[in-house]
Design brief:
CATH architecture of the largest domain: 3-Layer(aba) Sandwich
Largest sheet: 5 strands, mixed
CATH topology of the largest domain: Glutaredoxin
Distance between the termini: 47 Å
CATH class of the largest domain: Alpha Beta
Structural class: mainly beta
Shape: globular
Helix content: 10-25%
CATH superfamily of the largest domain: Glutaredoxin
Number of domains: 4
Radius of gyration: 27 Å
């Protein structure tokens, strides 16, 4: 049966989460206090206060369970005792509830993700499913269970991109996160074998992940990787080498002062006319003690037939099913930057669908490659069990470029823009200044005895300010105040006789 409770979906909608942290993400630090007053100061416990990085720095792998006391699946997993058993056999030596024969390499932290939950609710209070501290009437939970204040709970939900309860992460000593789900105790412990050992050598650099897009349109390609200092001493330099079929096709360098477990992104040199294939990526540093963790392989696919738009503007139409809070979408550039996005939305109280307003995405670069991706955080798409949801991406002529709705977690496709949808000769001497702008945005152009509309729009095409000039002739200057405009990227348009010229402007 789908969903936890309606209130769960509303909560996650408020958080704006679209999916869990991607494998390989770095866990943000947090500190929480355990609700159980009987826990002693044994092990790492400092008067009931628990800090994530303290445990990671001590060499523990941390299992993080973010749940809610009203969540049925959370309660069912809690009743299995999987976290209790894993903690008892492998938790910190000397801590309450941990075996004298512990392997001493695992920590469990449970967090109430709904910041509105009262402490009494943890002990079978109003609105809960059961007694979370003593779920099986066989003894109190010994690993820390925290019920943080609303602000802290919201921060943890946002930092860890919590899209549903329960979300259960494995966090390795090097801070790298992966979701393990509702695993049994034995599977939990088996999973930590994939964690690298704690830093022990002065010099050791790891190639943590590949950050570039993996499906591209034909053309040049720029690889990007994330590296991590896995050594005990600060790292000041590293070299990245990218090969295809044994031949070096790209290189990159890092210089700086990276602390232990610090990460950095390295943008490598552009591969001209890349035709696809598997990139063999290696990162090294002087005195590197562990070459094995410095190499990854990444396959890159070239799509020789992307959907092609007529101009540099597209339209996004979304119809969500009952659970609009699960649906989000984004448009990313070939460099991986998010150009536009939408969702999540409110849920319906019964099965059905809702047509969301069309989003016009203006200001795309002409003859460039973009990737459209739609997500469903629950993993069952937007059609058809709970409503006939669907999506489509169209160009300025309403030609459908991409469409669907029966995906699982996500669906994506490439779009190549056509020429800019403007007549450049009809609006001359068009300039936007200063850029970036802080107080005013000035737009100047040469009028030619006709009417003009000048607009300042956000990246999704919503008009922030506009001005009409009738029968303009000669040099024209229009100014928009940015006093109440949020920082970010915007689009300036000048329209006349059906032709539109656009320029981007940054407001700081």
């Amino acid at each position: 049966m789908k969903k936890l409770l309606l209130s769960a979906s509303l909560l996650i909608s408020a958080l704006g989460a679209q999916a869990q942290l991607a494998p390989g993400s770095i866990a943000p630090d947090f500190t929480v206090s355990a609700y159980q007053p009987w826990l002693s100061t044994a092990g790492m416990n400092n008067n009931g206060t628990y800090n994530l990085y303290d445990y990671l720095d001590a060499g523990y792998t941390v299992i993080l369970d973010v749940s809610a006391t009203w969540c049925g699946p959370c309660w069912n997993y809690h009743l299995t005792g999987a976290l209790e058993d894993a903690y008892a056999a492998h938790g910190p030596s000397g801590a309450l509830g941990v075996s004298a024969n512990t392997t001493d390499d695992l920590m469990v932290i449970w967090i109430e993700g709904d910041g509105a939950t009262a402490d009494a609710t943890m002990l079978d209070g109003s609105g809960t499913i059961g007694n979370w501290i003593n779920p099986n009437n066989g003894g109190q939970i010994q690993f820390p269970m925290a019920n943080p204040a609303t602000a802290t709970a919201n921060t943890i939900n946002e930092d860890f991109n919590i899209g549903y309860f329960p979300t259960i992460y494995k966090i390795c000593p090097n801070r790298v996160v992966s979701e393990i789900g509702q695993a049994a105790a034995a599977a939990i412990y088996t999973s930590i074998a994939s964690c690298p050992p704690p830093a022990s050598s002065p010099a050791d650099v790891a190639c943590l992940s590949f950050n570039g897009v993996t499906e591209i349109c034909p053309g040049d390609y720029t690889p990007k990787v994330t590296i991590q200092n896995s050594g005990t001493a600060n790292m000041t330099s590293a070299t990245v080498t990218v090969q295809v079929g044994g031949a070096t096709v790209s290189t990159g360098t890092y210089t700086g002062n990276l602390a232990t477990y610090g990460i950095a992104q390295v943008t490598c040199s552009t591969i001209s006319g890349f035709t696809g294939g598997t990139l063999n990526i290696t990162v090294t540093t002087a005195g590197d003690a562990n070459a094995a963790n410095g190499t990854i392989n990444q396959a890159i696919t070239v799509n020789n037939n992307p959907a092609t738009a007529a101009t540099n503007m597209i339209k996004v139409d979304i119809t969500t099913d009952r659970y609009g809070s699960e649906t989000t979408w984004e448009l990313t550039s070939s460099a991986g930057a998010v150009i536009a996005s939408g969702g999540p939305w409110a849920n319906l109280t019964a099965n059905g669908q809702t047509v969301r307003p069309t989003v016009n995405v203006y200001g795309l670069m002409a003859n460039q490659c973009y990737k459209f991706t739609i997500y469903d955080s629950y993993g069952d798409g937007i059609c058809c069990d709970f409503g006939t949801g669907s999506f489509s991406v169209k160009d300025v002529n309403n030609t459908v470029l991409l469409s669907g709705g029966t995906f699982t977690t996500e669906e994506s496709g490439l779009i190549k823009t056509g020429i800019a949808g403007i007549d450049e000769t009809s609006i001359t001497l068009f300039n936007v200044y200063p850029n970036p702008a802080s107080d005013l945005v000035n737009i100047s152009f040469e009028g030619e005895n006709t009417d003009y509309n000048i607009s300042l729009m956000d990246i999704q095409g919503r008009v922030i300010s506009s001005r009409e000039i009738a029968n303009a002739s000669g040099e024209q200057v229009v100014s928009f105040s940015t006093e109440n405009v949020a920082k970010g990227s915007y689009i300036v348009t000048v329209t006349s006789n059906g032709a539109t010229t656009t320029k981007n402007v940054v407001i700081k």
